[in-house]
Amino acid sequence: MPKCLSYKFNDLIPSGWKTRKFNVLLRRKGQKNNIKCILVRKITENSLRVDRSTKCQSEDNASLGELLKNKYYLAAFREFLQSEFSEENIEFWLACREYRESTAPAHRFLRATDIYQEFLHPMAVKEVNIDQCTRDKVKRSMAETTPWCFDEAELHVLRLMESDSWPRFLRSSACGRLRTEGLIWN
């Protein structure tokens, strides 16, 4: 179990111990205080091994956005969402990524309108679950057609998938098959 120290003792940490630093920003009456914390954990022979189970644990703890850059994760997760009839979330996320990569302002405006009509309009067939405030912010920012006009809605949908669909996918038999075949760890 890691021990949290409120101060730094680099010279007291034995060589075989691994440290991790975390910077935490707290608000206290309008002021920000920088608190540094060192987590100390003994490195053992087992913790140095990089096997499939360790890789699996670390990838399960990684962010969904990072993991979806892997084509195997993306395909398997998309198929899982289709089986649950909730694929609009991943389709919206992919559409936002594609939108951000487009460079021509005229194309960007047309694509932004299409994304809004397909996913964000209250009567959209594939409407994603976002609050009205976020929907209004996106609609206002579409006039500028900046690459980041969908970022807030995209982040909201990603967090929704991370907390809801992703844990169920990790427990599903589809993910289990991919793990046994070794496809998603490449």
Automatic annotation (TrEMBL):
Domain RGS: 63-172
Family annotation (Pfam families): RGS (PF00615)
PANTHER family: REGULATOR OF G PROTEIN SIGNALING, REGULATOR OF G-PROTEIN SIGNALING 21
UniProt-recorded name of the protein: Regulator of G-protein signaling 8
Annotated source species: Clupea harengus
Gene for this chain: si:ch211-117l17.6
